[in-house]
Amino acid sequence: MRKYVLDLRVTSAEQLSERYLLLSATNPAGPLPEMSPGQFAQLRIDDSKETFLRRPISLHHVDYEHNEVSFLIQKAGKGTASLWLKQPGSTLNVILPLGKGFTMPTSAEQRFLLVGGGVGVAPLLFMGEAMLRMGVRPTFLLGARSKSDLLLLDKYRALGTVYVTTEDGSEGEKGFVTQHSILQREKYDNIAVCGPKPMMLAMASYAKHTGISCEVSLENVMACGLGACLCCVENTKDGNVCVCKEGPVFDVEKLNW
User: Fold this and answer.
1) 0.90 exceeded by the pTM?
2) How crowded is residue 201: how many other Cβ atoms within 10 Å of its Cβ?
């Protein structure tokens, strides 16, 4: 899939909480390129003298009708903090689409469980939207530390059934997503997971024990996003591969987990 370097124009910068920003932008030069759920973009950091590398951010939402792409950004360091300075009308330079996304349904009868923790929920909205257009209504299992960290639940509920866990019990079932009772009550054909590695490891183990196909989106440290710098290498059953190029989405059967 062809990659593009684009100067997008920011259309909105909505602070969802103290830690999360929803940044949306349009391409004034023409239509956005075709993108797939699970792919990501490399965002240039313009307003920080101490930050030289782009930041890899998942595609959260793509609205082709309005020619707009959105990114859910967690404030984690100087680079992402700089992105919080973006205002409507400012320029956001991106490279996209990058990487390999999730495997999509092949029939409307397939039952998909989309599991996300923290900022890992970001690519699941785009995936759920694409699945609904295919006639598949997914189930979401979303986890967070507390109720205040659960973001945009209404958007997920518009796409499918939503189950929630919080570590402090302030919303949904108390605990981790890997402990939710839905995993014992329901049967799924496919699972897609994005979030902290311990969560992905636990879901991969659950999938293997139950015989369910499972894909995970790895979050290895990335610099170039193109497979040139080799800083995101993951050891798989096929040898060492660059997550940014061969992933970030992998079938768990291919991983040495």
Assistant:
1) yes
2) 16
